[in-house]
Amino acid sequence: KSGEIGGYRLTNLLRVNKTTYTAVFVITEGGNDYLENEDIPVSDLVLYNHDYTGITWNQLIVQENDLLDANTPAITKLSALSSGKQKIGSTINLLLTADESGYFFEDNSNINNISFSDTSITVMDLGKGNYSIVYKVDEGDASVVSGAMTIHIILTDMAGNTCHPYTSLSPNDISIDALRPVITRAYISSTAENVTAGGKVEITVIADYKGYSASPLTQVNNVSVLNSNLIFSDTGNGLYRFVYTVEADEGIVSAGNLAISIVLLDSYGNESLEFTSLDPNNVTIYTSKPSAAISGTTTICTGDSARLTISFGGFAPWQVELFDGSSTRIISNIQD
After folding, report:
1. Between 130 and which of 21, 126, 221, 326 could a Cys-Cys bridge form, CB atoms 3.0 to 4.6 Å apart?
2. C-beta contacts of 57-63 below 8 A and 24+ residues apart
């Protein structure tokens, strides 16, 4: 026996019956490739026994189904198109360059330990050996310091050849923070319970870390933190303070019903969940000035007495000063 198929030497000839034989050829790396519908050349195929040598066969194998691929996919470069800080919901764009198009990404390929089988990673074959890879950062993904995002990519071709894992990402400054700020408590830390226009309410917020800022979505009594009468400060160790100065047109708040909506931001732009639970309190806000309407007898004589009715506006306690033309009488601590 002798001969080659597609440039590969035939070996291990076995007789099946009087007219049928099998043989083996091994596809070696770097050898000839043939598409499924491409004819495969046969050269110098000869059968012989101890007495006779057969006729040399050099005709093509005409076929439509057999793919011969002797070349493993080769990745030449993986480049980061995105840069800088990446938060929850960010998309990180990468460009992979290989020797050919038409490859598949193995499911055990991963970026930042997120498998390519996950919906947060999408791939597009751009042609000419270029592949777009988009990784969307989900909440809870691993944090990454600048330039240290891990890569593990394996390409497969149609014949099943796989490349060695590719783990090298071009120099970059990508970093990832996929954790939200967490608010655990909010309470009123000022002491005044009856607050009028010009008065202040101080609210302390406890969170998991220091260094957060207030989102523009934050409100106290429907007053935005963007307004000058709601001041935010980071007091350290995960404690934050909001000082709300009441203005005259901001309405009445009954005891214990001050509304808050606190949203904190980290340096990557991740937002905490809206926090609306203020510890129980007795703070009342009344923005109208105290008022009084007096009614009663309009005319009296010297030495007589008269009943006066005073209707108060605002909230208790009130104080009244009555002047009869010569002296003043003060009535204090008037309650509802």
Report:
1. 126
2. 57/3, 61/5, 63/36, 63/37, 63/39
